[in-house]
């Protein structure tokens, strides 16, 4: 029970990402689970198939034939076609997906969740508590100035210490170079984004192969068939009426029976998969667009500068002096670096601009203090003459 509770907690939105990620790993799997449970109830509680049987069949024989045909597959023939004598030709027309629909939907939900699992397993190696930082910034108590000031101080302190350790820590391992350069989190997040794009494209391949269709753009083609009046009786997609062959032994002899069955479950399968195909298309387009956005924001230095400077200008701390651009550039690219800017962008997308503005101001003040101390420590000491008097001072009177 403890394991199940932890697993269900892991399926909840974590808010250490953006809304498009949650669309992939939370909302879409939840939708798939709902459809899987609904179709499972129809299959295993209701009556997914009914067959037209010979008059001599008893009730037990009818139940056997329906169970056999549902488990062992049926085959589709247009009502105007004769049943082929060759058994192999009948087997080539079999449709065998309807029994496995709930399981495949569950598998598809797991595939949508996998990139999120990679993010959760690997982002902690940066030494930055991404989830904790974002949750603290999201706290509703931050509406009060005192509470917000306290949260900003804690978050800024953690960020400063983590970024400083990244710069100074000598660590071995496959990610050591990325950590030292301050871009591990950013590149990991882009990799996860790319994984979301790849797996949603794989979903279309799974759907086409599972349903056994020759249509490349299945959703478009199905809608076109419906618009042109080409129903399942002609197209064969999700047929409601199918044929089934089975053999029984009577007095040691085999008797082969062919019955006609109604697949009521296919009426639901068609609606579910038609909706899912268009849902996957929307998710794919949104995810690819979101990946392009994050790539542009991550690799464009000017975008990073403008993103941070807008929060500093909101607090009126920039004075348009000649050294201002140089200072802000150093603050963004040498002090915060890619991981720092990425975290601030993540906070802004989840917690809003109010606390993000306070956080950037706090980090800017810490940067100025550190620069002031560094300049003071590296300033040359005043020169002294051979008698110990400083140059520029008056010589004491005799």
Automatic annotation (TrEMBL):
Keywords: Cell junction, Cell membrane, Gap junction, Ion channel, Ion transport, Membrane, Transmembrane, Transmembrane helix, Transport. Its main location: other. One of its GO terms (biological process) is monoatomic ion transmembrane transport. The keyword Cytoplasm does not apply. PROSITE patterns: PANNEXIN. One of its GO terms (molecular function) is gap junction channel activity. It comes from the Eukaryota. The chain crosses the membrane at residues 100-122, 187-207, 276-296. GO terms for cellular component: gap junction; plasma membrane. Residues 387-398 have a biased composition (Basic and acidic residues). Residues 375-398 are annotated as: Disordered. It is found in: Cell junction, Gap junction; Cell membrane. It is a multi-pass membrane protein. Belongs to the pannexin family. Structural component of the gap junctions. This is Innexin. It comes from Steinernema carpocapsae (Entomopathogenic nematode).
């Amino acid at each position: 029970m403890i394991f199940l509770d932890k697993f269900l907690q892991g399926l909840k939105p974590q808010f250490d990402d953006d809304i498009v990620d949650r669309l992939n790993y939370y909302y879409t799997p939840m939708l798939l689970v709902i459809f899987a449970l609904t179709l499972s109830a129809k299959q295993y509680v209701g009556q997914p198939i009914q067959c037209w049987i010979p008059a001599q069949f008893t009730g037990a024989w009818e139940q056997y034939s329906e169970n056999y045909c549902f488990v062992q597959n049926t085959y589709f023939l247009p009502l105007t076609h004769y049943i082929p004598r060759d058994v192999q030709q009948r087997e080539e027309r079999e449709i065998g997906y309807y029994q496995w629909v709930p399981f495949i939907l569950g598998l598809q939900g797991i595939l949508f969740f996998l990139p999120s699992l990679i993010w959760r397993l690997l982002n902690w190696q940066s030494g930055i508590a991404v989830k904790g930082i974002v949750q603290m910034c999201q706290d509703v108590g931050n509406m009060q100035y005192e509470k917000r000031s306290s949260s900003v101080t804690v978050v800024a302190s953690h960020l400063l210490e983590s970024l400083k350790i990244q710069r100074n820590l000598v660590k071995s391992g496959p990610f050591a170079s990325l950590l030292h350069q301050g871009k591990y989190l950013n590149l990991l997040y882009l990799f996860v984004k790319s994984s979301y794009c790849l797996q949603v494209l794989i979903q279309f391949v799974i759907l086409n192969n599972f349903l056994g269709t020759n249509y490349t753009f299945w959703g478009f083609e199905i809608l076109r068939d419906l618009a042109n009046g080409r129903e399942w009786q002609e197209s064969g997609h999700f047929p409601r009426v199918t044929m089934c062959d089975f053999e029984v032994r009577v007095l040691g002899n085999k008797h082969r029976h062919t019955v006609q069955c109604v697949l009521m479950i296919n009426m639901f399968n068609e609606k579910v998969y038609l909706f899912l195909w268009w849902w996957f298309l929307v998710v794919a387009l949104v995810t690819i667009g979101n990946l392009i956005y994050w790539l542009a924001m991550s690799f464009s230095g000017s975008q990073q500068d403008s993103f941070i400077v807008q929060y500093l200008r909101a607090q009126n701390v920039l004075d348009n002096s000649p050294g201002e651009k140089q200072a802000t550039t150093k603050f963004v690219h040498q002090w915060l670096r890619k991981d720092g800017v990425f975290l601030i962008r993540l906070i802004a997308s989840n917690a809003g601009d109010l606390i993000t503005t306070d956080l950037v101001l706090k980090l800017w003040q810490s940067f100025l203090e550190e620069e002031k101390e560094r300049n003071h420590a590296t300033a040359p000491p005043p020169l002294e003459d051979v008698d110990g008097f400083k140059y520029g001072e008056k010589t004491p009177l005799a």
